[in-house]
Amino acid sequence: MFFKSLMFQDSNSLNMLKLTFYHDKALVVLVSISLLVAGGLLLFSLNKYFNVEYMEYQWLEFLWTVLPAFILLAMAFPSMKALYYLDEIMKSVFSVKVIAHQWYWSYEYPFITKNSTYDSFMKQTNDLDKGEFRLLDTTTNMLLFNKVMTQVMVTSSDVLHSWTVPVLGIKMDAMPGRISQAACFPLYSGVFYGQCSEICGVNHSFMPIKVEVLSNSELMSFKDL
Ligand SMILES: [Cu+2]
């Protein structure tokens, strides 16, 4: 995990991969158009000469009206496709329930063990072990499994929160009295971080998310949380 980097973190789910690719494509279009327009502006503002053919140039007017419309359409379709993929829950192997509180997260694994709810608080700076991240590491981790389709159900016990893990491509609002779901298919194991992304009170900045994606061998030996 790198801080102060310009681009996204390396994606760890197919959804985030799609979002990153779309971002890259959109950026190519955006930069090309910006350069073209900036170049044109410079050229025409610094040049004393003016081509009279440009007055009432119907074909040019038609072109720069229709062309941007097509460019927008070409960008809208992959965007919609990615958007609908995000909502798609493929056959999930198991479910995790994420419950937001002021100001910590609880995780529930209803189909693995009984009474499997546990709380995840931010680690205080004094309690940090070497190599752990200040304001990001938690007392307990959320567990996911490598290449196992997981249904993440997000809800809240008090106010609005948002369960956000950038590498997984998930930013799901936690609403009291409502369960939102997201699909999660991690591509490799490791430890990944996220933060609450909906202002929820004074300790909003101090309820981080730490997701541990376990490898398949660890899944086989998985008995209790
Ligand atoms: Cu919050």
From TrEMBL:
The keyword Oxidoreductase does not apply. Residues 1-90 form the Cytochrome oxidase subunit II transmembrane region profile domain. SUPFAM superfamilies: Cupredoxins, Cytochrome c oxidase subunit II-like, transmembrane region. PROSITE patterns: COX2, COX2_CUA, COX2_TM. Binds a copper A center. Its cofactor is Cu cation. It holds the Pfam family COX2_TM. It is found in: Membrane; Mitochondrion inner membrane. One of its GO terms (biological process) is ATP synthesis coupled electron transport. The keyword Manganese does not apply. Residues 91-225 form the Cytochrome oxidase subunit II copper A binding domain. It is a multi-pass membrane protein. GO terms for molecular function: copper ion binding; cytochrome-c oxidase activity. It catalyses: 4 Fe(II)-[cytochrome c] + O2 + 8 H(+)(in) = 4 Fe(III)-[cytochrome c] + 2 H2O + 4 H(+)(out). Component of the cytochrome c oxidase, the last enzyme in the mitochondrial electron transport chain which drives oxidative phosphorylation. The respiratory chain contains 3 multisubunit complexes succinate dehydrogenase (complex II, CII), ubiquinol-cytochrome c oxidoreductase (cytochrome b-c1 complex, complex III, CIII) and cytochrome c oxidase (complex IV, CIV), that cooperate to transfer electrons derived from NADH and succinate to molecular oxygen, creating an electrochemical gradient over the inner membrane that drives transmembrane transport and the ATP synthase. Belongs to the cytochrome c oxidase subunit 2 family. This is Cytochrome c oxidase subunit 2.
